[in-house]
Amino acid sequence: MLKEFRAFVMRGNVLDLAVAVIIGAAFGRIVTSLTDDILMPVIGKIFGGLDFSSYFLVMGPVPAALQGSSDYAALKKAGVPLLGYGEFVTVLVNFLIVAFIIFLVVRAANRAMSAFERGKAPAESAPEPADVALLREIRDELRRR
């Protein structure tokens, strides 16, 4: 069983998946930082606050020790039911950034593959049938006249 497991882990696609997960996690941290540290403060400033993720509605009783508190993390930790719409907007913007970047990567990869296939196609294509070649010559002759 250990040999089978080692063979499974050493296959190329499993190693590729592991690399993709590691790069994806690092990329996720970059996007999170971009969202939290650059975009959301600007959006928060536009909407009147510097910390957009701290927008929430209290949906239940607040403990006496936290009465009047506007610290989202502390209230959440205390078990106060909150509607954290600011945090949701932050996560939504984060998702849209990731989705757009993945779209750009896939689009670039598709264009590269298409260009590669176009460059490869003439060399691999079969010779043109005689009737098609004859029709091409007739067309070219008619254009010249």
Automatic annotation (TrEMBL):
- Does the record's keyword annotation contain Isomerase? no
Q: Where in the cell is it found?
A: Cell inner membrane; Cell membrane
Key word Repeat present: no
Domain of life, per lineage? Bacteria
Question: Gene3D superfamilies recorded for this chain?
Answer: Large-conductance mechanosensitive channel, MscL, domain 1
Query: Could you list the residue ranges that cross the membrane?
Result: 12-31, 88-109
Q: How does it sit in the membrane?
A: Multi-pass membrane protein
Query: InterPro entries, alphabetically?
Result: Mechanosensitive_channel_CS, MS_channel, MSC/AndL, MscL_channel
Signal sequence interval, chain numbering: none
Alphabetically ordered keywords of this record = Cell inner membrane, Cell membrane, Ion channel, Ion transport, Membrane, Transmembrane, Transmembrane helix, Transport
Record-linked HAMAP family? MscL (MF_00115)
Which family is this sequence assigned to?
A: Belongs to the MscL family.
Instruction: Summarize subunit and interaction data from the UniProt record for this chain.
Output: Homopentamer.
What biological function has been recorded for the protein in this entry?
Answer: Channel that opens in response to stretch forces in the membrane lipid bilayer. May participate in the regulation of osmotic pressure changes within the cell.
> What's the name of the protein?
Large-conductance mechanosensitive channel
Q: Which organism is this entry from?
A: Sphingomonas aurea
